[in-house]
Structures are given as C-alpha cells and as structure tokens.
Amino acid sequence: MTTARVTPQAPQAPPAPRAPRRVALLPTAALLLGALYCLVPVVWVVMAATKAGDELFSTFTLAPGTGLLTNIADLNAYRDGVYWRWMANSALYAGVGAALSCAVSALGGYALAVYRFAGREAIFGVLLTGVLMPPVILAVPQYLLLAEVDLTDHYLSVLLPVLLSPYGIYLARIYAAAAVPSDVVEAARMDGAGEWRIFRAVALPMMLPGLVTIFLFQFVAIWNNFLLPFIMLSDDEKFPMTLGLYTLLNQGSNSPALYTLVITGSLLAIVPLVALFLLIQRFWSLDLLSGAVKS
Amino acid sequence: MTPRMTRRMTRHTKDVAEDVPRPTRRGPRRGAPYAFLAPAIVLFLLFFALPIGYAIQLSLRTVEVQGLGLGSGARREVWAGLANYTDALADPELLDGALRVAVYGLIVVPVMLGLALVFALLLDAERVRGRRAGRLLIFLPYAIPGVIAALLWGFLYLPSVSPLHRTLDALGLPEPDLLGGNALYLALANIAVWGGTGFNMIVIHTSLRAIPAELYEAARLDGCSQLQIALRVKIPLVTPSLVLTFFFSIIATLQVFSEPTTLRPLTNSVPTTWSPLMKVYQDAFGTGDIHSAAATAVIIALVTLALSFGFLRAAGARARQGEAR
Fold first, then answer.
1. Which of A41, A195, A199 faces B152 most closely, judged by CB atoms?
2. Which residue ranges form the domains of chain A, and what is each CATH number?
3. Element (H, E) at B271
4. What string of DSSP letters covers A113-131?
5. Is residue B290 situated within a structural domain?
6. What ipTM goes with this model?
7. Predicted confidence (pLDDT) per residue in A94-136, tens digit
C-alpha cells in the first residue's frame, strides 16, 4: 500500500472545507499524471508506427517519422495480408464467442434469480468455482481431450472452451434479480404464458442493458485471450490477432525488419477496441461491469 | 468460491425468488429452471469438470519405456501413484517459478490496488477537475490485450528504441537494463499495474458512488476535512469492494502467463519456466511430458484453491468481528 500514502498530502490543500467550487490542484494533478501514465505506450506506438524501418532505431522515439503509409502497405503485403486474416479471426472468435456466452449466461442467470429449486445454491457455487481455475490447468487437458475428437487446430477449439463464463453467470443473476420483478413473471404466468415465452418476451427485454455488459466483458476477454489459441492452434491462418503479433515478434528477434510490422500491427489492433470504448461509454455505464445495479 | 461468498453475492438475488408465491395451478413447471441451466451445466461438465478429472488421471500415471522405446507397444502408460507429484515438488524450477511469482505479486497487488483506490477517491472528490476524461483514460488500458501491452512496454524497455534510454544517454547518465536482473520484476509489474489499475478503479469507484451523500454531509458538519472523510468514511465503507478486487488481483497474479511469454523474444533473461504456469506449458508441449505437467498443474490448482478459501475465510472472520463490535 505504498502508493496509498500519496493521498494524505493531496487533499490537505483545501483550507476552507465550505468552498466546494474551488479546484483542488494537487488531486487534479495526480489524476492528470495517472492519465498520462496510461497514455505513454499508446502515444509511443502511434509515433513508432509512423517511422520507416531505419528511422525506428535512428531517430528520437517520440518524434513522428515518415513511413506510416509504407508500413501499412508492408503489413498489408506480408504473407498475402495474413494480418487482416488475424483481425477477422479475432472479430469472429470474440463476436460469436461473446454472443453465445452471453446467451448461456442469460439463461442460467435468469433461472438462478427467478426460480426456487432444489440445488440452486449448489449449482451456482460449483459454477462459480470455475473462476478460480487457472486457465493453463484447464487448457492443457482441454487440448488433449479435443485432440481425441480431432478438434484441435480448429476454430471450435478456441470457441467452445470460452462459452461458459462463471463471471457472466454471476452478473446475469444479479441483473435478472434486479431487473425482472417477480410479480411481472407471476402475472405473465397467470395469463397463461409458458416459461420459455415469459423468458423470451418478458424477462429478456428487461435484462438487456445487463446483457450488453456481459457481452462486452466477454468480447474483451476473448479478444485479449492469448493462452487458449496459443495452446490450441498451429495453423497461422486461424490465429487471432494476439497470437499472430506474438509470432511476428518472435520471428523479429532474428530479423529486426519485422519490428516495424509488429509495431504497426499493434497500433491497428488497438484502434478498433479503443474506438469501441470511446463510442459506447456515452450511452453505457462502466459501473455495470462491477455488478452494480441501479435501485 | 466458498458457500459464504456465494451467499454474500446472492443476497440481492434472494428477495425475488422468495417473493414468488407458492406455485398455483398455473405454477412453474418443475423442470424449467434446470432446462434454462442445462447449457451452462453441460458446458461446465465438458470444459471444466472433465478436463480437471482427466488432468488428475494423467497426473497419476506415467509412460514406461521398454527396451529401446521403438516400435508399437514399447511405450505404455502405467500407474505411477504419487511419483509425479513428489518429482514435481522436488523440482527446483517449480519452486523458483513460485518465488518469482510471489515477488512479482508483492509488487503488483499493493501498487495496483493502492493506485486504483487513490484514483477512485479522486474521481469521487467533487473539487477535482477532469474527472470524466481521467476515468476514461485510466480505464483505457483495459481495452488493450495483455500481449499487446507487454509488446508495447517491451519496446519501451528495449535500449535501441526506448525514449527513456535515449534521454539518459543524451544526459550522459547510465542506462538501466530493464529487461534483466531484478529490474525485470519491476518491468513486468509495471505492465500488470498499467493494464489492471483502471478496472479495479471502476469497481471501487462504483461502490463509492453507492454511499449516500447524507453521510458526507454529516461528516462535514462535524468538521471533517475532505481527507478525513476519505480516510474515515469512504475507505471503511468500500472495504467489501477492496476485498473483492484484492481477491481477483491475487488470482490474476497467480495466472500470469502472456506478459512474460511476450517479453521472451526481446530478452534472454526470461526463462521458459519463469512462472509455474509457463513451466506447465513447457512440460506439456516443450518436453512433451504431459504426466508431470498434469501433476504440476494439479498442484498449482490446489495451491490456488487453498489460498482463495483461506483468504475468503480470513475476510469473512474479520467481517464477523466487525459486526460483533
């Protein structure tokens, strides 16, 4: 907790506690510093991606270079555009995986929140222990088992293991409990609606904001995943972005010319997600990510 | 997760279920909740329970080579008992890896959560400017994959491209080797802190915002300064979310894999067995000894479970003590 001790000096600046409109300088500076720290690698990669191969090692790193378009063209030409293939694969894994995982979480979370049934807490508890399992522990036997049914190095080998998200089920349960009033469910039942119809037509629309959160959470988790594809895949036509850039960097230690491709590729890889976050944060609350529900 | 934690997590959810009146003539079908849960349960059995069972089975067996080990039938799987486990525990590489991760975790967890708490308190202080932008920018690294984060920082540590080294060189100062020796811990910890602070900040900030404003008003009337409010009112009230972020940070630390793996091509000082999980991968796919890899994996899983339950018990005991007082 060494860093926590930084604060004590900070709010001492305000001498008059009853003047809430004045700007507290030190705390504002601290926040600014934190924001700058988070920007450092991003600014660096933007600058580095503009440098032509020789400029990377010869010019000051934070000065812009002249080679951005050449770099993108080089990346585009590298092994017939395999980079874009990785990008498409990542979008496929993350998009399909998050959608299906969200559906599984919604069904499970709804059942756990709305029904009372034997074994409810036991099932929930067992599903949650999945959070504690280190992914390597699961991934190695998963690989061996999938090899038995000839599914390794297949798109499914990266998709299937991520469909169950314990955290997604936990969040779905909280959202369903907060968003789906029991009397509404009961009223629908009185009107003669079947259980599935109640879920589809009544509960699902109410849970939608929460489900968007689960989708995004899983999307980011799968987009960022490295270990599972690292273990499962060997054909680089099926690689997601993370694994593709890693192998490129790995080859780069022998031929530094590839470093430029790695750097340009990294920049282009973070653009979509950063853009997505800037876009959605206007009409979606980050608070939902930690399971907060408006009361 | 322990039943206790589960119970805590589900406290909000209970009300709904208990409000549901007894099944009337049109009451829910008995099987409905199980049908809704079926996909989750099937996936759990196939991709969690089955692999764990398989790993345990593998860890108890070994390959026996007969003769020169050539031809079919020369290699067969035999029962090994706990031999793989005793071998794994006696392996100095595993212990070294565990110590490295412990040192790494001792840096990452306090620094990351300390920063997350400070930033969350700053976001909650009304006289701080630029809170919206600050929150977004500090959260930004969450959107960047760990591999790419490690790759970007890796280049920033690399003497031939780093602006830091260039500046130090221009000033005539000695250039530190960030990718070797003890500095490597700081280099790796920095990547994790950079990537994880924002998410934890959001979790803590969310629970700060749930504190009713009247409490601050009361404290202010009693003459508390902003700092005193932060220390005496806010921090104690967000303890549950601190416990939760601490718990998840510990688990994430134990699972560190992609960052050291990504730094390997840039330096010679990250061995293939830097962390215990990397050793499992190396044993399974590098040396091809899946049986000892499985034993190591089971040991790591048991240690993780023991640490988690121990932590949750301790946190639960402290909470009970607090309630009793």
1. A41
2. 77-290 (1.10.3720.10)
3. none
4. HH---TTHHHHHHHHHHGG
5. yes
6. 0.85
7. 999 999 999 999 999 999 999 999 999 999 999 988 877 777 7
